[in-house]
Design brief:
- This protein is mainly alpha-helical and 413 residues long.
- The chain contains 15 helices and 3 strands.
- Strand 1 and strand 2 form a beta hairpin.
- It is flat, with a radius of gyration of 30 Å.
């Protein structure tokens, strides 16, 4: 039976070094590359196991050869490659060698070789992955353990790869939907600050020689500019400190997370997209775990963490408690009052027909497509809105600065 939480004590050992080598394969063809190992002797032994006759081997400067940070995309790619090789019948240890040698990031290579070493020493794949919780979470471990126990590890790795690819894709779409307006807001603020600090003061010196009463919009703009010039340090400090405090509290305060996630789900335009994305991730995760044979009660805590929203997280834990007491999943989800009616109906049908994983997968497909369409529509909608906002903001300031010049031209005329 799969276990949702586990604590594995990480053992320390000698650090792997990177060795550059040149040699030939069994057919005499020249080859070169890099090999991670704890010593030159071990590196030669590993290469010899791969059928390579080493002619030259040197230790590289490992300080300069530190790899980049391992990302979720790296883990997803590794999972897909491992699933493909296992389905093709490639032995597990050889699969790790092939994937590691083909990866360009030394950090990923080291991780894979360390996992391979653990497996060679007698650890199961679940135990080897469990030593690296930063890259393999409880959901990942639960699924791998279920696959090992059922003897369908290749199928489970394929399911995990699909799940990770879908999750990364939907997170990327949400980020792209939010990035565009945020970047425009930042650019607009920078342009406004430059105009207030440098452009308006120059016009103010020019207008001081007119000796005439300036239009009201120009006087208002000059007053704002004077405030910027006098208190620019306070403005930037308040904005920077406010953003830092906001994100600091968001990460550490549960009340803040509740409030922000609730506000984001109810926000106009963006709220609907975020809710559809949360439902898609929730459904995809539960479908993947249920299809892997993980019991529903044990799967729900991992599903809660994978939803990406604390409102869904708390609701899922309440659903877990209700299901544990004998309530059906569809009824418990209805009581949570956050799921669309279509999801509730599909889950009810899935429970009655015994095809809950398939129904949840269809729900996830539907809402992922909904997110795709919503993001595409939002992108096309945001462009004219942003153009209008920037036009009013920047254009308004330009007109306010040129009104005295127009007024002077009409007097001269």
């Amino acid at each position: 039976m799969a276990v949702a939480n586990r604590t594995v004590k990480k053992t320390t050992g000698p650090k792997n070094l990177t060795f550059a080598w040149e040699g030939a394969n069994k057919k005499g063809k020249f080859m070169s590359g890099e090999q991670l190992a704890v010593s030159e002797v071990v590196a030669r032994s590993l290469l010899r196991q791969q059928g390579i006759i080493v002619r030259k081997i040197t230790k590289k400067n490992n300080i300069l050869n530190r790899g980049k940070k391992i990302t979720g995309k790296d883990v997803a790619l590794f999972t897909r490659q491992l699933a493909t090789m296992m389905k093709a019948g490639v032995p597990l240890l050889q699969s790790f060698d092939i994937i590691a040698q083909g990866h360009t990031n030394p950090s990923v290579q080291k991780l894979l070789y360390d996992i391979k070493t653990d497996i060679e020493s007698g650890s199961s794949l679940t135990q080897a992955f469990g030593k690296y919780p930063l890259y393999f979470d409880a959901l990942y471990l639960n699924l791998v353990e279920a696959g090992e126990q059922a003897g369908i590890l290749d199928e489970i790795m394929d399911r995990i790869a699909v799940y990770q690819e879908k999750t990364i894709a939907i997170i990327g779409k949400i980020k792209s939907a939010l990035f565009y307006p945020i970047s425009i807001i930042v650019v607009a603020f920078v342009i406004t600050a430059i105009i207030m600090l440098f452009v308006v003061p120059a016009f103010k010196q020019l207008f001081s020689s007119f000796g005439a009463t300036l239009p009201t919009p120009t006087l208002i703009l000059m007053g704002i500019s004077d405030f910027f010039v006098a208190y620019w340090w306070l403005i930037f400090s308040v904005i920077g400190g406010g953003l830092w405090f906001f994100f600091y509290m968001w990460k550490r305060s549960r009340a803040m997370q509740h409030a922000m996630d609730r506000i984001m789900l109810k926000a106009p335009i963006f709220g609907a997209i975020l809710k559809k994305a949360a439902v898609a991730r929730w459904s995809r995760t539960l479908s993947t775990m249920f299809a892997a044979g993980v019991p529903l009660v044990e799967a729900l805590p991992s599903v809660a963490g994978a939803s990406g929203n604390i409102i869904f997280y708390d609701a899922t834990l309440k659903i877990r408690d209700d299901v544990s007491s004998g309530v059906s999943l569809a009824y418990a989800m209805r009581a949570a009052n956050i799921f669309p009616s279509m999801v509730l109906q599909m889950v009810a049908i899935g429970e009655e027909s015994g095809s809950l994983d398939a129904m949840l997968s269809k729900v996830a497909d539907f809402y992922e497509a909904e997110v795709d369409d919503a993001v595409a529509a939002l992108s096309s909608l945001m462009e004219p809105i942003i153009m209008v906002v920037l036009g009013v903001l920047i254009g308004g300031m330009v007109v306010a600065m040129y009104l005295p010049i127009f007024k002077m031209g009409s007097v001269v005329g």
